[in-house]
Amino acid sequence: MHRNRDLENLWPQLWLPDEPELSTARILTFGYNAHFSSKKEQASLTIGDFANDLLFRMKYGENGPERLGQVPLVVVAHSMGGLVFKKAFIHGHMNDEFRGIISSIKAVLFMATPHRGTDLAETLNKILTSSVFGHSPKDYVSELASRSPTIDELNDSFRHHASKLQIFSFYETLSTNVGPMSFMILEKQSSILGYPNETSQPLTANHHDVCKFESVDDPNYTSVLGALRSVVSIAKSPKANDGAPEEDMSQVTALLGVSNPPAEDFVAARAVRKPGTCQHFLRSDEFNGLVNTKLSPVLWVHGPPGSGKSTLCATAIEHLIDQDRHCAYFFFKHSDRTKRSLGNMLRSLAYQMALQVPTYRREILEIARSGLQLQGSDSLSIWKRLFSTILAEIKLEEEIYWVIDGIDESDSSKQVVEFISFVGDFKGFVRVLVFSRPLPTINQSFQKARRRTSVPEKALSHNEDDIRLLVSDEIDYLPSTDEFKAETINEIVTRSQGNFLWATLVLKRVINCHRQEQVRQVLETTPDGMAELYGRMLNVVADLDIPEDKTLAGILLSWAMYARAPLTVEELSELYPTEVRSVMDLKHAVSQICGQFVLIDAHNRVTLVHQSARDYLRKSTLRSFSLDPETVHEELLCKCLVALCDRTLRNKMNTLRIPQFLPYASTSWAFHLEGCSTESDRVLDMLVKFFNGPYPLPWIQYLSMSGHLSELVTVSRRLASFSRRRRKTETDRAPMLHRLSDLSLLDTWAVDLMKLPAKFGRHLSDDPYLIHKCIPALSPTSSAMHQKYSGSSTITLSISGLSNTEWDDCLARVSVSSGRALRLAVSPLYLVVAADRPKGSIVIWDTNLFEERKVLGIGEHIDSLAFNESGTLLACCGLSKTHMWKVENWCLVRDAKNPHRERAIEIKFDEAGSLVMITDLRRAYKLPRDGDTTQSLAWAPLSPGLLEEVNIPEGMFLGTPSSVALNAECSQVAVAYRAFPLSIWNVDPPELVARLKLKPKQGQRPANSHTGTNKVVWHPSGTYVLGIYGQIFKWSPIDDTYDEVKGEVGVIPHEIQCSPNGRVFLTIDVEGTIKIYDVAQMTVIYKLTSEDAVNRICFSPDNLRFYDLRGSYCNIWEPNCLVRIADSVSERFSDSDSISESLCFAVIPTECIYDIEQNEGPASIRPLTLPRAVLQAALHPLGILRDGRMVILDKNLWVCTAQLNDVQDTIIRHFFVPHDWVTAAGMKLSHLLPDGTILCPSKGEVAIIQNDMTSEW
């Protein structure tokens, strides 16, 4: 690591200790120092040998009292050293001896590491011989070859552990001289991993010098130092990871889908700050009021575009971290759709809080273990579950700071501000620092927020000193006199008017000048103000006269403006090899060709110079090319589909030669489809080509491999939307030009893509190659998937005997045996149904396979069931007692006598975890959360005045409420009567809030305006209620707005339930009809009819399913409209008139089978103990094959085989059976024929499944 073998350039030893952030770090080396690695002269033959040596030296190689593993570790690894580290990291996690040390590694900097091997392995061997490990590595050079088994195995294993690390990958950009030849040892594709938590960065160096630097001013050293500063500034603070166990954070990651703080954005924003800048902000009264005096929980900092807000934000984050404060941050980016999402911001903040705050982490872990899934949840649900419910009750050890940049670039700045306004109500001390432009909508939102909490604001001004430091630092390198430099600096600072962006754009032109006259000309021709400057920049693009430059400008501006996420230069080079690769210095050329509108950032991504540039360009026109949204989206869509219409794509994926553009094309083509004109025949032609060919299967395989299978739901919605809009345009065309058959193809695929994740998602995630082997054969015969691909040579499964022609909305049906199902409750993990026989019985199924887990009993009639918000507690209210169980082990934790001779109408957990009850006598009670386990507690009555009506109009009477509903916080109660108006009450203090008074309809007398209500429920927002009084209505007690469902005829519904996300509601009537309505439009979007009466209905917590009780059965439904609405609110009306049989499981495991052998005498019977693996995996045994293998159905419905005498104790999977094919009774009747054919009863038919069972999947 020392340039030219000069020890004065040994930067880890001589330069890093001078850095304030790194001065206290211990720095150790492996591989160069003979004392550190005594095996240096030995012939270690493999990467594994070096890895084991590294682990041993880390564990036992130190003599001092401080051992590795006691503080966070950061690893810097060059070339093959990166492979050694990866191997050691994997081995360490598998070995208890080293797990403690390995778990302390928080980040790794890979320096030109051959992650995918190299085709120049022999050349690399020559370099390694002289530079890395000091001895000939010929014995292991074969491991470095591209696609070598060692490399593939290493990558496959490392990716399972990589989420625990912050990863930086630096790659070479210059050829390496080896003798008379010059080679590029590693291309970028081999030097980067492509993981979400990876930051990649090019260095201007060859393979040999990529980790060696000329001086502290070397740009390469600056890049590496910036990465080290970033990881160390976070890792060195005890707040960064407050003892968070690795296993705990893995569960948090699984819940939130976040594995690291957004350090990439933080590093990028901090990198542009010059030393000495931003100090005025840190010393300001407003910032000190937030951090030190804590006068207000929120500070809003605003400034115009280009005023340096993101840099100030990064400075504030760094300041808080340096002061050992808990700090969570997020940068909204309009150019990246994933960074516009409010839900993603909330997940990221929750992850960072869980990482730093043990109290909060414990609460998040409890939610994670309850089985809650946040995928598809809207931001309001995420806010309630992760923040308002938790932080309103727990007290944090120390305050935590949220620093949020660019809320004006978010999808909903109004909702961001609304959420922030509630932090003053938290028991935990949360302080929020927010940066944005001073848009009128944001200003209005903060004005409204001030009704709840104090929100001071700071307008960014007086930043001329910071701009002067920026300009002076750059102008200092200008080859001119000090006097001329001073004049130039003064003019730029004065004319910038506090705008960093203006100053930066001018500086880029000035520093490229070689004469004073050129500098003066630049300044004279540059207009003041951003709008005028953008106009001049646009003229540069318009005046391009070289055709190749015009083409390249159109390409770069199109992708920079309309890409779903910024593309890298490598991705664009793959798309446009001629246009991009022919440019000698693209970074320099981009600025000239695109008039400084486009730049290539530190991560080699093509982006716009600023969000304001996008706004300007959208309003502008160019003669050379079009930047019209529909035109550009069509071009980008076609590029994506061309990349997917590659007949060699499947083979490329199987050999891990994945094209660099494939991740973007696979996940973003439907995004561009949404922006296209529906009248374009070119778009329709491309879609038909794609779906008529073999291309969808490799595409789905890649989505499964990359963890993006949920994208199919989004694609389905956008494809169906395009088809609907296109059909409307067909009416204006001549009949000969109609393309109805093509649109029918798209409609069929839209349904298939919607159903695939629900029916086969878990199996595809486990094995993406199943899309080629058995999914088409298992799909309904009318589906495009079955019709196009079930006859493919790769299909090894044959299905007959079934008439399943259509996809089915019913996922499962479970039964409470001989009794009648009365009540139900659903959590993320469990479905709970109360039955009347045996009296007081409660049957519990899991919501994955709907396998019966437990039966509870209270011995009396059950009035109500309820889970708490997180699904960790279940409450059951009987006639005389209320019981509460902890779901984790079904241990009884509460047992309280009910109020005498009162029956519960409604029970609900409040935000504090206490249980609230409303009885038939219009009284309210609370069962507190606190108390010892199984302690007998009494219901505590709430205020006696609650629900007490004093003045009852003549001719009306109260009686028992027909319906009672508590809002989400249990702070208000809606109470309905059959002969008295619907009323809303505050719980504490008890007071009447509003009463529904309908305006008389034509022909009614005013006395009829007080109408009774049969059923009422709250909308999750708590701002209005939904109800039934003969009509279905919604009513806001806040502003007395009222709306009804129009045009409803037929039977009046008797039950109504609103979805957890508040987008839809369900109704049922006595004829068994279930309808789903859109809440906003109050219109029907789904209807299901049957001959059976429905007793109860309930939504699943993830909004994707609903459950109904009929007789002794509970049906589980997952209609397309709910899946689509979870992704978007648009959906068409649909009908379904059938109910499908599905699955329920009862498992009675046995530990042995019997071998019956009969020769000439009596039969001998001897027990054979089943292998341990079979006992753990088996759901149901199917039989024994002729060769002695046992066939079982495992808990994920895979058909598996196992040798009964196998000492290896292994199970081989062959194929799976879809969930909705199997019922409990059908599974018991399933039969295995001697040739391996399986007969499986399904929905009154018998599925004949043929497979040779000789291959492992």
UniProtKB/TrEMBL annotation:
Record-linked Pfam families: NPHP3_N, WHD_GPIID
Domain annotation Nephrocystin 3-like N-terminal: ranges: 276-437
Secretion signal span: none
Highest taxon listed in the record's lineage: Eukaryota
Keywords from the UniProt entry: Repeat
Domain GPI inositol-deacylase winged helix: 550-624
InterPro entries attached to this UniProt entry: AB_hydrolase_fold, GPIID_WHD, NPHP3-like_N, P-loop_NTPase, WD40/YVTN_repeat-like_dom_sf
Coiled-coil annotated spans: none
Keyword Repeat set for record: yes
PANTHER family: AMELOGENIN, GPI INOSITOL-DEACYLASE
Name the record gives this protein: GPI inositol-deacylase
Annotated source species: Diatrype stigma
